[in-house]
Automatic annotation (TrEMBL):
Belongs to the peptidase S8 family. InterPro entries: Peptidase_S8/S53_dom, Peptidase_S8/S53_dom_sf, Peptidase_S8/S53_subtilisin, Peptidase_S8_Asp-AS, Peptidase_S8_His-AS, Peptidase_S8_Ser-AS, Peptidase_S8_subtilisin-rel, Subtilisin_Carlsberg-like. Keywords: Hydrolase, Protease, Serine protease. This is S8 family peptidase. CDD domains: Peptidases_S8_Subtilisin_subset. Gene3D superfamilies: Peptidase S8/S53 domain (3.40.50.200). Residues 40-301 form the Peptidase S8/S53 domain. The active site is at 49 (charge relay system), 86 (charge relay system), 250 (charge relay system). One of its GO terms (molecular function) is serine-type endopeptidase activity. It comes from Metabacillus litoralis. One of its GO terms (biological process) is proteolysis.
């Protein structure tokens, strides 16, 4: 039996209440997208994590459905509550409501499919993740909605053929799979640190920068990193209807997962058709800024959502890119 776990992260501060756009969300210029009318409307993101606090004031209207694959609550499949905090934090970065209190997520009008594959202690069996991915692939919403993006801030040092195969099937079914790079970085860009599923070439692997746009010392380096996003001092939702500041590549990943929702909404409106998974990936990469570090750290660079409004593409052949 193989296992996956939360990619280690740091809880820096717990906050009772707040009212702000988190600095990480400002760093990737998400408000630029909102001001142009794109907030993730119509896009469902499956979050495979420790669940989500379903009655959090910033998240209760964002959850469209969910399922528990763990042994928490005696294996009650209908109870996807979060007893850890990690999943709730990730969900808040993705789509916390844009209202007059709390925080706001990158894609505040997107919907969450909460797929609980990690237990209260942050561990899970690999088969739970595999089952969770299959569930996300086959899920249909009340209006026929389908999952467009799977977000996974989890990892293992073990490569699983079965996990890799189901991820490939998800991608072939036109779902973007976005994963954390991992926090085993040693500060040497010439060495590789791999955490799976992030290291699989088919997924979008996300590394971390701090709020000063410097690579996080903990962020894994390898030749499969696709891009980076804010992963240090990230303010988001937390347990007990509170908020917390956390750090880790786990926190960088939901910035990209939610940004993908904004990009999909924008591009499908502009092109008047659905994008393929590879086209969606290409549009994410077009919105990156190269940093002055090795590609093993940054991949294509730091996400910047304002780039999507500085040019307009005239031909569909400009949509594609290669992972």
């Amino acid at each position: 039996m193989s296992y996956v776990h939360l990619i280690p992260y740091t809880v820096q501060t717990i906050i009772k209440s707040t009212k702000e756009i988190p600095p990480g969300i400002q760093l990737i210029n998400a408000p630029f997208s909102w001001d142009n009318g794109y907030k993730g409307e119509g896009v469902v993101i499956a979050v495979l994590d420790t669940g989500c606090e379903s009655n959090h004031s910033e998240l209760r209207e964002q959850i469209i459905d969910g399922k528990n694959f763990t042994t928490d609550d005696q294996g009650d499949s209908t109870n996807f509550e979060d007893y850890n905090g990690h999943g709730t934090h990730v969900c808040g970065t993705i789509c916390a409501a844009r209202n007059d209190s709390g925080v706001v997520g990158v894609a505040p009008n997107a919907k969450l499919l909460v797929v609980k594959v990690l237990s209260e202690k942050g561990y899970g069996e690999t088969k739970w993740v595999i089952e969770g991915i299959r569930y996300a692939m086959n899920w249909r919403g009340p209006k026929g909605e389908k999952v467009r993006i799977i977000s996974m801030s989890l990892g293992s040092s073990e490569d699983s053929v079965e996990l890799h195969n189901v991820i490939q099937k998800a991608i072939n079914s036109n779902i973007l799979v976005i994963c954390a790079a991992g926090n085993e970085g040693d500060g040497n860009h010439e060495t590789n640190e791999f955490a799976y599923p992030g290291a699989y070439p088919e997924v979008v692997q996300v590394g971390s920068v701090n709020l000063q746009r410097k690579i996080s010392v903990f962020s894994n380096t390898n030749t499969e990193v696709d891009l980076v996003a804010p992963g240090e001092e990230i303010l988001s939702t937390y347990l007990n209807n509170e908020f917390a500041v956390l750090s880790g590549t786990s926190m960088a990943t939901p910035h990209i997962s939610a940004a993908a929702a904004l990009i999909i909404q924008q591009c499908e409106q502009e092109f008047e058709r659905s994008l393929t998974e590879s086209e969606s990936y290409a549009q994410i990469i077009k919105r990156t800024i190269e940093l002055d570090v090795s590609r093993r750290y940054q991949g294509n660079g730091l996400l910047d959502l304002s780039i999507g409004f500085k040019s307009r593409y005239k031909h569909d052949d400009q949509l594609t890119a290669v992972k």
